[in-house]
Amino acid sequence: DKSARWLLFENNSPIGFVEGTEIKADQNTGYVAGIGVIPSAQGKGYGEILLRWIFAYYAAIGRQFIELNVDAGNESGALRLYEKLGMKPKHSWQHFENKAWANS
To answer: What domains, with CATH codes, occur in the chain?
Structure first.
């Protein structure tokens, strides 16, 4: 298992995490499987710190690319952060559902 996890603490309390995994089909790519900062700590640069940690880790083990998935409707500022750090959209898709049909 080539995964990496970091927790970020402030005043001995966890306030954020980042987790990465390997994409088995592509040994040149690291994947950010999850990142999060508690609401009261958002907007203080902690998300950027976490991403820079995992970017540095992937660079140190020779990964040339880093990928992650994000909801385009995410209102937390995640898209701006990813773009600020040089990430660019690679794919886009839409998710459809019909709850009424499933219950009929």
So the answer is: 4-102 (3.40.630.30)
